[in-house]
Amino acid sequence: MFVIKWISMFAAHTSPDLHRLQTEGFVIEVCDGWLIVHHIPYINSAREMKDGILMMPLSISGDHTIRPNDHTAYWMGEQPCDVKGHKLPSLVNSSVKRPICKSYTASFFFSCHAEKEEFPPNGDYPNYYEKVKHYFDIIAAPAICLEPEAWNLINKPLDAVAEENPFHYMDSNASRANITGLCNKFKGLKIGIIGLGGTGSYLLDFVAKTPVSEIHLFDADEINNHNAFRAPGAMSDSDLSKIPKKVDYYADIYSNMHKGIIPHAVMVTSDNFSELDMLDYVFLSLDAVSAKKQIAGHLIEKRIPFIDSGMGIAQNPNGQLSGMLHVAIGTQDRYKHLSLVMGSEDAEKDEYATNIQIAELNALAAGLSVIQWKKMLGFYADLRDKACFVYTINSNDIVYYEEKET
């Protein structure tokens, strides 16, 4: 009887193909949307017995697997060879050095089609059992030929601990795109979003799809009808009738996906600045200039990087909307540019000032802010390294400000 440890975030019995792999003695692990198959015996070029790791992204619907997306896989180990130490034909597509998940880094990219006769009409693997078994038969056959007991390698127990997952279900999007290693940059981070009126709600929508540890929402206001027209999703009449706090409403929705949504139904002032001190990054999406400047000053003092966004929209003489939106980062050594874009406190006192916000502009400001944050983390490439830019609607221009502070 095999001794097997199943390390996963969903039960094996919900996926018959994975359960069958278990039953037949394969040591399998599910890690960040990847199927990891441990202890595959193989022969290297020196005709030595080795064991490697076969890895492939999982296609998931809910809590069970669906048909594999393609025929490829990754390999951690030396290049598998035949009984004479010659490279196995029609297996390796290329040598790579690709982080997969945790400490697993692939050394080879495999591309192995099944025969059309085996899986008609085009040879696509129908499930993960057939895909793993096909690769296993090719890789392990020389090892089992030279040493029949090599089969026993696959039932070696795996000592590992499942990592805490910030999502309620598996992120197969990252594994499908082979960017799991990049997404690891978000793990463990605590993010704050101050202001959920328009742009802030889209910020939450985007950030909640990253594996950060916690997302803290700060806003003392309640949701009214106008908020529904500049926020993601569709609020129901019954939702609006309850007049919920913004942070509670959004926390309830996005907690369906992310486990770390934490609402704070408060206005951020000097009396509670300390609640920001445990955060790694903060998004500022509030209208009040004086409050924004005070919060920015505290974050700079505490060396907490932040991303500020805002917009100014008005009707031109032709009755069309025009204006600008800005995105600016702030750090301890990059903040002098903020006075250029945060606006004047006098504007807050103008009782005739408009506060036009349109959903697509809120979404654009949020999207550009999140892109800037991800550049700071090294997720996206950044050729300009500018701390601030302004987008003008009518000309579609982006103007950049400020080189690095010296």
Walk me through the topology.
Layout: H1 16-23, E1 27-31, E2 34-43, E3 49-57, E4 60-61, E5 64-65, E6 72-76, E7 92-101, E8 104-111, H2 128-146, H3 172-176, H4 180-183, E9 190-194, H5 199-207, E10 214-218, H6 225-228, H7 237-241, H8 246-254, E11 261-264, E12 281-284, H9 289-301, E13 306-315, E14 321-330, H10 338-341, H11 359-377, E15 388-392, E16 397-401
Parallel strand pairs: 9-10, 9-12, 10-11, 12-13
Antiparallel strand pairs: 1-2, 2-3, 3-6, 4-5, 6-8, 7-8, 13-14, 14-15, 15-16
Features:
single chain, about 400 residues, alpha+beta, Rossmann fold, eight-stranded mixed β-sheet, six-stranded antiparallel β-sheet, 11 helices, about 25% helix, disordered N terminus
Would you kindly provide a written description of the structure presented here, covering whatever features stand out?
It is built from 11 helices and 16 strands. It is an alpha+beta fold and 406 residues long. The protein has 2 domains: 12-180, no CATH class; 188-401, Rossmann fold. The chain has an 8-stranded mixed beta sheet with strand order 11-10-9-12-13-14-15-16, sandwiched between helices. Strand 4 (60-61) and strand 5 (64-65) form a beta hairpin. Helix 1 (16-23) packs parallel to helix 2 (128-146) and helix 5 (199-207) crosses helix 11 (359-377). The radius of gyration is 26 Å and the shape is elongated.
Distance between the termini: 67 Å
Number of helices: 11
Could you state the oligomeric state of the chains shown? Answer: single chain
Radius of gyration: 26 Å
Taken in chain order, the helices and strands follow as HEEEEEEEEHHHEHEHHHEEHEEHHEE
Helix-strand category: alpha+beta
Task: Give the integer mean of the pLDDT values.
Answer: 88
Q: Report the β-strand fraction as a percent range.
A: 15-25%
The CATH first-level class of the largest domain comes to Alpha Beta
Give the total of domains: 2
Shape: elongated
User: Major beta sheet, specifics?
Assistant: 8 strands, mixed
